[in-house]
Amino acid sequence: MKALDKPLLLEIYRKMVAVRTFEETAAELFLKGQLPGFLHCYIGEEAVAAGVCAHLTPQDMITSTHRGHGHAVAKGARLDMMMAELFAKETGYCHGKGGSMHIADLDLGILGANGIVGAGVPIATGAGLALKMKGSDRVTVAFFGDGGSNTGAFYEGVNLAAVWDLPVVFLCENNQYAESTPRATHQKVKYVSDRAAAFNIPGETLDGMDVFEVYQKTGEAIGRARAGGGPTLLEARTYRFMGHFVGDPQPYRTKEEVEEWKKRDPIVLFRQRVIGEGKIGATELDAIDAAIKKEMEAAVQFARESPEPEVEAALQDIFTE
Amino acid sequence: MRKITYREGVVEALREEMRRDERVFLLGEDIAEFGGSYKTTQGLLQEFGKERVRNTPISEAAIVGAALGSALLGMRPVAELMYIDFAGIAMDQIVNQTAKVKYMFGGKAKVPLVIRTQGGTGRSSAAQHAQSLEAWFVHVPGLKVVQPSTAYDVKGLLKASIRDDNPVFFIEHKLLYTTTSEIPDEDYIIPLGKADVKREGSDVTIVATSRMVHLSLAAADRLAAEGIQCEVVDPRTLSPLDEETILTSVGKTNKLVVVCEATPQCSFASEVAAVVAEKGFDLLDAPIQRVTSMHTPTPFAPKLEKFVTPSEEKIIAAVKKVVG
Fold first, then answer.
1. pLDDT band at A145 (very low <50, low <70, confident <90, very high)
2. Which of A30, B40, B102, B154 is the most buried (most CB within 10 A)?
3. Is B307 an interface residue toward A (CB < 8 Å)?
4. B196-323 topology per CATH
5. ipTM entry
6. Which domains are seen in chain A, by residue range?
7. If one looks up domain B2-183 in CATH, what number appears?
8. Are A211 and A266 in contact (CB under 8 A)?
9. Beta-carbon neighbour count of residue A201 at 10 Å?
10. Domain-wise residue ranges, chain B
11. Fold identical between B2-183 and B196-323?
12. CA A211 to chain centroid
């Protein structure tokens, strides 16, 4: 595992801020009615994507979810092409044919966000199978939520990876709610990671608001997978600060609960720690914030000014010719 | 030339493509030591080993999902679903994932993947093991759907499907595995999207799929004895459909009977009838007739199963109605 030296810490921070800024910007544009479709924001969960992807190269694979912007940014996706996709423009990642829930970049190992809860899990298993059959030390990480951990696809996908010892890390982002349904009413297990025992693979729960812990614990699982040690089921305990979708009135939870979790904002926790330990100064971190803000403004401008797809595009790319 | 069975056609196609391209591998339930429930992978484990002939748990969603994930990374999986009836378990992976990733991702993904399965009545397999569900898949953009009727066709079409860079849903028929064809000694493939005129005739066009091709040919023999000449067209690939061959035939005969084993509502037979009604209405001298199973679940009792499914007699009756 790479040491958490200053360049890596700065990179992790930059990614968390980029995700946060992207999501805040997208939510604002959405509420102004400037983006079609609907939008699921990742704000609050940034430490998970940033901590995991710090271990991955573009040759490693991820599968993602309907709440996928954070995974894509952390895996290296461009903010301008992502924003253009949200604007349904020709220059977007999917040329305006996928939208928020289908952003993918196969060259970066992003096998797609996914509109179907749990569906990425068996696909990650298949990607892990291909990596193993090719004889590489590359790995796949499947992101999914506590809601996804109740689907048949989850059980089938994890079980298959387990019996075939595939290099896949199953990373459950337990953000406490399956859409509006609190976890205590949708699953009986205390920890999602308890379910690892059902597959006879390692399982562990970690603090998803603490990027240092995410980095350490996911690094161990990813390292094990690279070394041929098979899959792991990890559960990152986290929280989405916004609703299930932008505009969600959230009658299912209290403001107090949200405020309580916000005290453990992963970006704030990170700043407190690195500044407190004297590793990085506040000005250096502020400079990253400012640079991301600028990059984001340029991304929005790029998206706005980009052309819409031609109608003919609707009939293309159904098949490979 | 040599004679092979439909089952041997499947095995030979798999073996030849696995020899030709090391990215081709198989996954499915009971396909390794057991050789497949219908023995369509027999001997392949011995030649290619367990890395490339992969027995899976009974997990249809994971079989298709894993095939998709590996295809996105450049492998060329051939997944087997033991019965088409089990596709329901995998429907999200087939319909929402496999069929759509290329389009949703703006064209970047390549999905060279075959899902092999078998369907159909005739063995008292009852309501959950004898369906003809091809229309479910024909309905979905992004899937190619193939339904071969002969040993010659199954081999050539399966090889073409494996070489195709798109998802192909490949439907065999449980009663056809022991049927035989003459095949050439040399390598051949049958391009997808090309229908085959299985019998030429001037009076009526019969478009038939899968086992219904054989019933239609038998019916055509009996009708010929009465002076009615049927042309039997086998689309072979249901999607994309070779409309031209069908319309050309109807242009010659001016009458159409469509024969499919599935239940009638929104069936492939309905689709063929709709295409000809839209694009060839002026060619028709009589209303189109469909011969399908009755709109019931498949019953267990042999007598009942036979009653609800198409027969030579039902085809003959439909032909006589249109030549009236």
1. very high
2. B154
3. no
4. Rossmann fold (3.40.50)
5. 0.97
6. 6-300 (3.40.50.970)
7. 3.40.50.970
8. yes
9. 22
10. 2-183, 196-323
11. yes
12. 13
